[in-house]
Amino acid sequence: MKILILNGPNLNLLGIREPEIYGKMTYAELCRMITAYCDGKNIRCNILQSNHEGELVDMIQAAPGSYDAIIINAAAYTHTSIAIADALRAVDLPAAEVHLTDIDKREEYRRVSYLRDACVGCFYGKGVASYTEAIDFLFKYHSK
After folding, report:
1. Roughly how many angstroms between the first and final C-alpha of the chain, as a whole number?
2. What is the pLDDT of residues 32-46, one digit of tens each?
3. CATH at 35
4. Segment 117-141 mean pLDDT
5. Which of 22, 67, 114, 124 does the annotation list as catalytic?
6. What is the pTM for the complete model shown?
7. Are 125 and 101 in contact, with CB atoms under 8 Å apart?
């Protein structure tokens, strides 16, 4: 199995940006942790990050034929991007939405997810464990 893991705006600032909310783990450490977790399960992953909405759409559109599933932490675009949701619907790949924090317990505007209905699962509020839960879920989903 091969999973494309997409991270949206400002996730490259993990460990620097509001560590009291998002934690002290850096983005590089997050990527190493995810890669090691996938390696331990014999899952190949490719982790990409962009601060640009259109770039994320392009990455999603390019995924079919190369990946079996997508994990996306669209960050702020979760609450604004119909384009990313449409791209997820357009490709024939199961996708999981991930967030480090519990978006349902954050500011009112963060409680809206345009991606939720385009995904087969949503994992949030558990810090970096949200990613590992999504990986496990998609592995089982793919094995059906």
Report:
1. 13
2. 999 999 999 999 999
3. 3.40.50.9100
4. 95
5. 22
6. 0.93
7. yes
22 is catalytic: yes
Residue of 67, 77, 99, 114 with catalytic role: 99
142 part of the active site: no
**Contact (CB, 8 A) for 69 and 95:** yes
- Amino acid in position 11: L
Q: Name the residue range of residue 61's domain.
A: 2-143
- State whether residue 96 is helix, strand or coil: strand
Q: At what angle do helices 27-40 and 129-143 cross, to 10 degrees?
A: 30
Q: Which residues pair with 68 in a beta bridge?
A: none
Q: In what order do the strands lie in the sheet with 121-124?
A: 44-49, 2-7, 69-73, 95-99, 121-124
Q: Tell me what the mean pLDDT of segment 105-114 comes to.
A: 76
